[in-house]
Amino acid sequence: MEKTILTGDRPTGRLHLGHYVGSLKRRVELQNSGEYKNIFIMIADAQALTDNFDNPEKVRQNILEVALDYLSVGLDPKISTLFIQSQITELTELTFYYMNLVTLARLQLNPTVKSEIQLRNFKTSIPVGFLCYPISQAADITAFKADTVPVGEDQLPMIEQTREIVRKFNHIYGEEVLIEPKALLPDNQVCMRLPGTDGKAKMSKSLGNCIYLSDTQEEVQKKIMSMYTDPTHLKVSDPGHIEGNTVFTYLDAFCRPEHFEKYWNEYSSLDEVKEHYQRGGLGDVKVKRFLNSIVNEELEPIRARRKEYEKDIEGVYEILKEGTQRAKEVASKTLMEVKNAMKLNYFDNKELITERLPK
Ligand code: ATP
Ligand code: MG
Question: Dihedral angle at the C-alpha atoms of 109, 115, 116, 122, nearest 10 degrees?
Answer without folding.
Answer: 80
